[in-house]
Amino acid sequence: MNDPRDFERPILEIEEQIENLKLFGGEAKREKELAALQKKLAKLRREVFAKLTPWQVVQVARHPRRPHFLDYVEALFDSFTELRGDRRFADDPAVVAGFARFRGRPVCLVGHQKGRDTKQKLLRNFGMPKPEGYRKALRVMRLAEKFRVPVLTFIDTPGAYPGMDAEERGQAEAIAYNLQEMARLRTSVVVTVTGEGGSGGALALGVGDRVNMLEHSIYSVISPEGCAAILWKDAARAEEAAAALKLTAKDLLRLALVDRVIEEPLGGAHADPPALFASVAMVLEEQLSELAAVDPGSLFDARYAKFRAMGAVAGA
Amino acid sequence: MWFRRKKKPEAVAADERAVHVPKGMWVKCDSCGQIMFAQTVADNAEVCPKCGYHFRISARRRLESLFDNGSYQEFDAEVAPTDPLGFKDQKRYKDRIAQYQAATGEKDAVVNAAGTLGGIPVIISCMEYAYMGGSMGSVVGEKITRAAERALAEKAPLIVVACSGGARMQESVFSLMQMAKISAALARLQEARLPYISVMTDPTTGGVTASFAMLGDVNIAEPKALIGFAGPRVIEQTIRQKLPEGFQRAEFLLEKGMVDLVVHRTQMRRTLAELLAIFTGAPPPPP
Ligand SMILES: [Zn+2]
After folding, report:
1. Could you give the angle at the alpha carbon of B127 between the alpha carbons of B140 and B233, nearest 5°?
2. For position A97, which CATH number holds?
3. Does residue A313 belong to any structural domain of this protein?
4. CA distance B97 to B103
5. Which residues of A218-234 are buried (b: 16+ CB within 10 A; e: fewer)?
6. Cα-Cα-Cα-Cα dihedral of B189, B195, B200, B204, to 10°?
7. Which of residues 164-193 of B touch A (CB under 8 A)?
8. B78 to chain A: nearest residue by CA?
């Protein structure tokens, strides 16, 4: 199997050339060369990203340099106070929750956190929560409800952790309970899928009044690899599975399963994080303002109607 | 996540354990190996009289076993699956639908019914494992949601009998969103203070467990039923070791505090009747 990120290689090569040139910059000749390379890079990014296959979108969604939840916290919010623990069993570092200010407005933030280096990945369990992570998330969202603070969730997980300890402590119950309780939370909830929306483990933070997806994020009932292993009996056919699962933001918007796609900068979120953060902030600002005008008592009915409409049946 | 583990011939063979054995034939217990008259097993609610093994039964057989006098009115029978994504793996989803409909006589993997249980009007949604492993697609989500809505409208208790391998991959995110949809419908029952009882049978896994199956005011499991979020094989691959005997079985969940009761099939009706009478303020059911 080819390296699934081969499509990005030519871009990375030019990026490297540019970095090298910058090290020895200053001369007029080099400046000219740099400008040419940057032009070439932009063109290449445009070409490659204009025709990403679903499988390539999966690679971008999982990109090791893609901004993670705490990067958004840092870039978009002020005075973040993290609240830890589920008050039942433990604190799960795969989910981060707390309160902050967004352009002066109080907000509750909840998100999956993947780690970037090996140590962080292990600490964050690769962004795969255990029951205590979901229970912490709900505990903090309940505080937000109590104090009428809007909730912003950020989804980026391969899925809920499929381990023995997670099963023993009720992984299924933790997810199920979040689904039920988020549906009737009497404060507004804005969901943004930033990277991987991996199945029930993603949805457990995903019941809200607005659901956004970043342009190159994915949302799926199962990973393409898992789907390929089961339906094609061959995990190597993940590329076909990725296409069949219709897991891209564009697909989900077309299927009316999400409300909005937030455009990413050329080359993906990791190519220009400040530009990405600006786009995300703009959408969140707009949606928070809309929702601030809604009576909290009517949120449940509207949220119910929204999810009630999802599904495709005949003979109804 | 549902899938058929063994390669099966063209037409969908009814699952080895799912058959309602025709009268006058012999049947062998999957657990203790005892060979018995099928009628003897049928008379014992499809439970092995020797070892207590619970044979898997069809949705309709289950409904008969729960409602008073075995009688009920089916509703929402017309709701049928579509192929919203044009999904094709090694086989077209459309063809799978036709195949399972022909093999089971069901339009999809759930049957909705209304009737009385211990004299109390109730709504029951019962899953059909023989239809694509009871996997949850849009029809399962829609029908259980409608069952909850009908319970709400009629102020009746809701019972859902789960029997499912989880999500239906061929409906991808449509399948996933049924978890949110049904859970939101159950939140409405919560607010209306209407009883919802979840009955988990073998197997109840994946997105079904991680939504309505775990949300009962009372969660009841059949003996030895496999109940979990991740399937045993996925867990074994993750932790690279074999799972202990009995892991994710009903009795294990009872010990871990995730189910309220493990109830033998022959006692299920009575248990439900007693709980519902208490929750609805009805007089106690006759002995
Ligand atoms: Zn037996």
Report:
1. 95
2. 3.90.226.10
3. no
4. 10
5. bbbbbbbbbbbbbbbee
6. 10
7. 167-181, 183-188, 190-191
8. A315
ipTM: 0.95
Query: Residue B203, CB half-sphere, CA atoms under 13 Å: how many?
Result: 22
Q: Are residues A176 and A254 in the same domain?
A: yes
Pairwise CA distance, residues A154 & A152, whole Å: 7
Helix (H, G, I), strand (E, B) or coil at A266: coil
My answer on whether A126 and A200 are in the same domain is yes
Other C-beta atoms closer than 10 Å to the C-beta of A24 total 8
Separation between Cα atoms, residue A94 and residue B2, nearest integer Å: 27
User: CB contacts < 8 Å between A and B, how many?
Assistant: 204
Instruction: At A138, give phi and psi (nearest 5°).
Output: -70, -40
> With 0-12 CB in 10 A as exposed, 13-18 as middle and 19+ as buried, what is B185?
buried
Average pLDDT over residues A94-101: 98
Contacts of B88 in chain A (CB under 8 A): 244
User: What pLDDT was estimated at residue B7?
Assistant: 45
| Cβ neighbours of residue A35 closer than 8 Å, sequence gap 6 or more | none
pLDDT tens digit sequence for A18-62: 888 888 766 777 888 888 989 999 999 998 998 899 999 999 999
pTM reported for the whole predicted model? 0.94
Q: Residues in chain B, how many?
A: 287
Please name the helix (run of DSSP H) or strand (run of DSSP E) that holds residue B65, with its range, or none: helix B59-66
pLDDT, averaged across chain B: 92
